[in-house]
Design goal:
The chain has about 775 residues and is of the alpha+beta class. The chain folds into three domains: about 5-45 and about 230-420 and about 595-765, Multidrug efflux transporter AcrB transmembrane fold; about 70-200, no CATH class; about 460-580, no CATH class. The strands form three sheets. Strands 2, 3, 4, 5 and 6 form a five-stranded antiparallel β-sheet that branches. A hairpin with a 2-residue loop joins β4 (about 145-150) and β5. The longest helix has about 35 residues, at about 195-230.
Length: about 775
C-alpha cells in the first residue's frame, strides 16, 4: 500500500520546504493574535454551565433568574460553645455589619433581623438574652440553618454573574473575614460554605493545576524526545510546533467566546499529546534515512510515506472527539468540538510548520546521529514467534478481560448493578479540603443542600398579594415540609411568618380574612424596602417561588421529588381554588445537577458508539483487508474495558471526567493501530505475516512505544490534581495507554496469526522440508 497521489504530495511538500521562510512568517503573524485570544479565555465551573443552553431545564432556570435575580448564596457559620453569649454576638454583629457594606453582598441573619426589628442591637447581657429568646422562640430560624446548638449562620446573597464577578466578590468577603478566621475567639471557628466557594475553589484549582499538568508534560516530552532522537535541534522543532498548535486551539476558544470548565484542561492536553504522537511517527520515519539517499529526498519520502497514516489517525481522532457533540453535558460537548478543531490545526501545522523547521534547523537523521531503540531490532526477531506460540492464550484471555470490564461497567440485570454515577459538585473537591468538610457539615445541619425551585406564575398583576393566594401557598409549603422527601421550604410564607413574629404576633399566618388582608397590606408596604422580598416576589406581583431544600442528588430521586411537588400542588389547588390561576414550574440547580447524571450514560454510550463507527469507517477507507478493520481496534477496546474493570475493583465511580476515558483512549490510542496496520499491510503484500510483523516493529515499533510513553506521561500529569475525579482520570488514562501498547505487541499480533492462519517462516520451511523427504 502506498500513499495516494504521491507525485502530487511530493510536489506539495517540496514546495512547502522550499518556501519554508514564508511558512515561518505566516505562523509568526498568527501566533500573536492566537496567544492574545487564548489568555482571554475565562474559567467557570458553575453547575448551570454543565448542560447545553438549548436544554428546556436550562431555559427555565435562565428565565427564573431574569425574574428573581441571579444571586448566589454563601453561608458563614460562626461556631461557639454558646452562640448566644454577649461577646460572641458582638463579634458576629460586627462581622455582619462589615459584610453588609460590601458591594454586591446582602447579609440577612437572624441577628440582623432582630437588629432591624428592635432598631439596633447592643451586645449587653440583657439584649443578648432577648435575642436568644427571639431566635429560639420559633422553628423558622432553625429550619433555615440560621441557628443551631453551637452556631449562628450569616447568609449572604451575592448579586454576581460569571467567574470574574464571583471571584472579586468572594475575595472581598475573604478579606473582610480574614482577621476573624485567624483569631476567631470568642468563636471556636468561622466557616464559609456555599456554591460560590465551591466554584471559586474549582476555578482556582483548575488554574493552579494547569501550572502543574503542563510542566510535567513538558518535562517528560523533553526527556523522552531527547532520549529518543538525541538532538537539541529536533527538540526545538517539536516544541515550536506544539506551542503553535496549542496556541491556535485555545485562541479559537477565545475567539468564539468559549469558557473553560472542569474538563477543559483536557482540550490543550489532548491536542498536545496527539500532536506529539504524530510528530514522533513522522520524525521517526525521517530519521531512518538510508545511506544512499540524500536528506532532502528522504524528508520528502518520509512526509509522503507517513501522510496517509498520520492523516487517517488525526482525522479519526478529530471526528471521534467531535462525536462528543451528541452529549447534553455542555463541557463535554464543547470539549469534543474544541479538540476536533484543534486537531485540524494540528494536522495543518504538522505538515507545514514542522517540515519547514526540520529544514531550517537541519535536524539530524540516524546517519548523523544514532537514535535510541536499537533493541527493537532484537525484539522484532523474537516477538512474532512468541505471539504465534501463545496466540491461544493471549487472544482468549484478552477477550475474557474485555468481557469482565464490560460487565463491570454495565452490570448484569438482577445480579450486578451498573457502575455508580456521581454528579455532586462537592465530589470534585479534595475531600481533605476545609471547604469540602464545611459543606458536608452544613448539609447535615440543613437536611440537605440540594435546592429545587417551585416557580409559581400568573398573568394577573398583583395576584401574589391576594390574601387567599398567600394562604394557599402557605398551606402548600406546610404540606411539602411534612413529606419525607423534603427537608425544609423557604419562600414568601417564611418571610411573612418572620415579619409577624418580629411584630410579636406569633409565627403563624392568620386564617381569617381580616388578618390575612393585613398581612398582604404589610407585604405591599415592605416590598420596596426589603431586598429579601424581591428575591421571592417580582415587581408586578405576578411571580413567586418556594425554595425546596432536600438531599436529592440523583435523577431517579429527583423525579420522585418532582412527582411529589406536582401531586401536592394539584391537591392544594383543589383545596384552595385561588391557586388555579398559577402555573407551577420546577427549576433550579437540583434539576440541572441530577440531569447531568441522567445524561452521562447516554453520553458514554452514544459518543463511544459514534467514535467506534467513525474510526471503523476510517479503517474501512485506509485498509482494504477485512481482518484489519476488526483487529485494529482490539488494543484500544481491551485497554478501555479493562480500565472500567479496574475502576469497579477499586470502588471508583463514573463522573464528568472519568466518563471521558473511553472516548479519550479510543480517540487517541487508535493512532498506534493505524500506523501498525499501515506498515504491516505495506510489507505483507510482498511476504508473509511474520515478515509484515517484523517490518512493522522495526519501522513503527519505536514510534508506538515512545508516543505511548509521552501520551501516558502527559495524562499522568492530571494525577497531581487535588480533585479526585481529575486525579483518577489521569491515572486511569495513563494506565490505559500502557495497556493499549501492551496489546499492540501481544494480543494484536496473536489475533493476526489466528485470522491469517499463517505460520512463522521457520515452521513453514521445516514443514516443506519434511514434505520433500516424504
Amino acid at each position: 500500500m502506498s500513499a495516494p497521489n504521491s507525485t502530487f504530495l511530493e510536489r506539495l511538500f517540496r514546495f512547502i520546504v522550499a518556501k519554508r521562510w514564508w511558512v515561518i512568517a505566516i505562523y509568526a503573524l498568527l501566533i500573536g493574535p492566537a496567544a492574545w485570544f487564548a489568555v482571554r479565555v475565562d474559567q467557570d465551573n458553575s453547575i448551570d454551565r454543565l448542560i447545553v443552553e438549548t436544554d428546556p431545564d436550562v431555559a427555565h432556570w435562565q428565565a427564573f433568574q431574569k425574574v428573581f435575580g441571579n444571586g448566589e448564596y454563601v453561608v458563614l457559620l460562626a461556631e461557639a460553645e454558646d452562640p448566644f453569649a454577649p461577646d460572641v454576638l458582638a463579634k458576629v454583629d460586627a462581622l455582619e455589619r462589615a459584610l453588609g457594606k460590601l458591594p454586591k453582598v446582602d447579609a440577612n441573619s437572624a441577628l440582623g433581623i432582630f437588629r432591624r426589628a428592635k432598631a439596633g442591637f447592643d451586645p449587653t447581657p440583657e439584649q443578648s438574652a432577648a435575642f436568644k429568646k427571639f431566635a429560639t422562640g420559633t422553628d423558622i430560624f432553625r429550619k433555615q440553618g440560621l441557628i443551631g446548638d453551637h452556631f449562628l449562620g450569616i447568609p449572604l446573597i451575592l448579586s454576581v454573574k460569571g467567574t470574574r464577578e464571583r471571584g472579586e466578590t468572594v475575595d472581598a468577603i475573604d478579606r473582610t473575614i480574614a482577621d476573624v478566621e485567624k483569631n476567631p475567639a470568642p468563636l471556636q471557628a468561622l466557616r464559609k460554605v456555599g456554591a460560590p466557594y465551591v466554584n471559586a475553589y474549582l476555578d482556582a484549582d483548575m488554574r493552579a493545576a494547569a501550572m502543574r499538568y503542563f510542566p510535567v508534560f513538558f518535562f517528560f516530552m523533553v526527556a523522552l524526545n531527547y532520549a529518543l532522537y538525541r538532538s537539541f535541534r529536533t527538540l526545538v522543532a517539536f516544541i515550536l510546533t506544539l506551542g503553535v498548535s496549542v496556541a491556535l486551539t485555545v485562541g479559537y476558544v477565545g475567539v468564539t467566546g468559549g469558557m473553560f470548565t472542569i474538563v477543559s484542561a483536557l482540550v490543550p492536553m489532548t491536542v498536545l499529546i496527539t500532536c506529539t504522537a504524530t510528530l514522533v511517527y513522522l520524525h521517526s520515519r525521517f530519521v531512518e534515512r538510508p545511506p544512499d539517499r540524500s536528506q532532502d529526498d528522504h524528508q520528502i519520502f518520509a512526509l509522503c510515506n507517513k501522510f496517509l497514516a498520520c492523516t487517517a489517525s488525526v482525522f479519526a481522532t478529530a471526528v471521534g472527539f467531535a462525536a462528543l457533540a451528541v452529549s447534553q453535558i455542555r463541557p463535554i460537548r464543547e470539549m469534543g468540538i474544541w479538540v476536533a478543531i484543534g486537531l485540524v490545526f494540528t494536522w495543518i501545522t504538522v505538515f507545514t510548520l514542522f517540515p519547514a523547521l526540520q529544514k531550517i534547523l537541519n535536524t539530524p537523521t540516524q546517519q548523523e546521529r544514532k537514535v535510541a531503540g536499537q533493541w527493537l531490532t532484537r525484539m522484532a526477531g523474537w516477538l512474532p514467534r512468541f505471539s504465534y506460540r501463545w496466540r491461544w492464550l493471549l487472544v482468549p484471555s484478552s477477550l475474557l478481560l474485555c468481557a469482565l470490564g464490560a460487565i463491570s461497567l454495565f452490570g448484569i440485570p438482577g445480579h450486578l448493578a451498573p457502575m455508580d454515577l456521581k454528579t455532586d459538585a462537592l465530589e470534585y473537591m479534595d475531600h481533605d479540603s476545609q471547604v469540602y468538610k464545611d459543606m458536608r457539615r452544613l448539609e447535615k445541619a440543613m437536611a440537605g443542600l440540594s435546592v429545587t425551585e417551585v416557580w409559581l406564575q400568573t398573568d394577573k398583576a398583583g395576584a401574589v398579594t391576594d390574601g387567599e393566594v398567600v394562604l394557599g401557598i402557605s398551606h402548600y409549603a406546610d404540606a411539602l415540609e411534612k413529606d419525607p422527601h423534603v427537608g425544609t421550604v423557604v419562600g414568601l410564607p417564611t418571610i411573612l411568618r418572620t415579619l409577624r413574629y418580629v411584630q410579636g404576633k406569633g409565627d403563624k399566618l392568620p386564617e381569617d380574612a381580616a388578618g390575612i388582608d393585613q398581612v398582604t397590606t404589610d407585604l405591599e408596604t415592605l416590598l420596596p424596602k426589603e431586598k429579601m422580598l424581591s428575591r421571592f416576589v417580582d415587581a408586578k406581583l405576578e411571580n413567586t417561588h418556594l425554595s425546596v431544600i432536600t438531599q436529592t442528588v440523583d435523577f431517579a430521586h429527583y423525579k420522585e421529588l418532582e412527582d411529589v411537588l406536582k401531586a401536592k400542588w394539584q391537591e392544594q389547588v383543589a383545596r384552595d381554588p385561588a391557586l388555579k390561576q398559577f402555573r407551577m414550574v420546577t427549576t433550579g440547580l437540583a434539576p440541572l445537577q441530577t440531569k447531568i447524571g441522567h445524561n452521562m450514560v447516554p453520553t458514554l454510550v452514544e459518543s463511544f458508539a459514534l467514535t467506534v463507527a467513525i474510526i471503523f469507517g476510517t479503517f474501512l477507507l485506509v485498509f482494504r483487508n477485512g481482518a484489519a478493520r476488526l483487529m485494529a481496534m482490539i488494543p484500544s477496546l481491551f485497554a478501555i474495558l479493562v480500565m472500567f474493570g479496574i475502576m469497579r475493583v477499586f470502588g471508583m465511580n463514573l463522573n464528568i471526567t472519568t466518563i471521558l476515558i473511553a472516548s479519550t483512549v479510543l480517540g487517541t490510542s487508535e493512532n498506534d493501530q493505524i500506523h501498525f496496520f499501515y506498515h504491516f499491510l505495506e510489507k505483507q503484500k510482498e511476504g508473509s505475516t511474520e515478515a509484515g510483523l517484523r517490518y512493522t516493529l522495526i519501522v513503527a515499533g519505536r514510534a508506538i512505544i515512545f508516543a505511548t510513553l509521552i501520551n501516558a506521561a502527559g495524562f499522568a500529569g492530571f494525577a497531581l490534581s487535588r480533585m479526585p475525579p481529575m486525579r483518577q482520570f489521569g491515572i486511569l488514562t495513563a494506565l490505559a495507554f500502557v495497556l493499549s501498547m501492551f496489546a499492540d505487541f501481544t494480543a494484536l499480533p496473536a489475533a493476526l496469526w489466528m485470522i491469517s492462519r499463517d505460520k512463522p517462516d521457520a515452521i513453514k520451511r521445516e514443514e516443506a522440508a519434511r514434505l520433500e523427504k516424504q
